[in-house]
Amino acid sequence: EEVLVRGVAFNRDEAQLTITGVPDQPGVAHKILGPISDANIEVDMIVQNIGTDGATDFTFTVHRNELEQAKNILAETGKSLGAKNWSSDDKIAKISIIGGGMRSHAGVATQMFEALAKENINIQLISTSEIKVSVVIDEKYLELAVRSLHEAFDLHEA
Amino acid sequence: EEVLVRGVAFNRDEAQLTITGVPDQPGVAHKILGPISDANIEVDMIVQNIGTDGATDFTFTVHRNELEQAKNILAETGKSLGAKNWSSDDKIAKISIIGGGMRSHAGVATQMFEALAKENINIQLISTSEIKVSVVIDEKYLELAVRSLHEAFDLHEA
Ligand SMILES: C[C@@H](O)[C@H](N)C(=O)O
Ligand SMILES: C[C@@H](O)[C@H](N)C(=O)O
Question: How confident is the model over A104-108, as a mean pLDDT?
Fold first, then answer.
């Protein structure tokens, strides 16, 4: 069926923080994000996958200029939670395909993944909503990724 | 700052599939989702967190009535990828807070996580966009979760 992909959105001003091996129990997500939110740090993506053996990992992205503060806060949380580890990456870029409803979502996401795979670009993080598929990649591939996605979806670069 | 939370959305007609320990290399996301998309199976959430030791996990949700077919396809993919494991869960509910821009996103998400934590509801999966924070929980807590979120955000249940 016809997919209405409206465009490619991207930014290079975010950084990602990950805390690994946190207890997969009620209250933990709040313990991690609460202090970040209390510090008035803006958060964009929040990604958590299914836990294994009672633990899981939690990743979120912030503006790069708030990374230092977020790192300090996360380190405190990591210690108090007894997390396995915590880390950050400020060399990321976020890129999204906008458009398509759920009916075409799998097709749009597949096409996006294929375009990136063809350029040997590794997908580090995936988070979706009905109208948007967002991935995080190494920022050095951003221009290449944007170009190949415009080609894959037959869009004209602005 | 003022958060414009517009409502709580939820559904109980999805099932989640997870494939664990897949190589965190270009092309893998496409290998996983391609066959699902080729079978015309609709996909809603797609979640992948940061990899560790060169491997990561990939989770997606489908309509419950397409779960059997999706499971069969995923099993084939799992074997050909040499994945660690694959599993599914049809006792989930998806619940989302709609509204708020990035500026209030961390606050909205924190408030959502806190409301669920207060009811001892475990958050299994988290995926967000700028205007939406979606989580997956055990379906048996859906009514309780919807009620506590309406209270937490001072919304009137429809
Ligand atoms: C890991 C974290 O999301 C936990 N499961 C919680 O409910 O808070
Ligand atoms: C795991 C999967 O997303 C892989 N990193 C890829 O780029 O396809």
Answer: 87
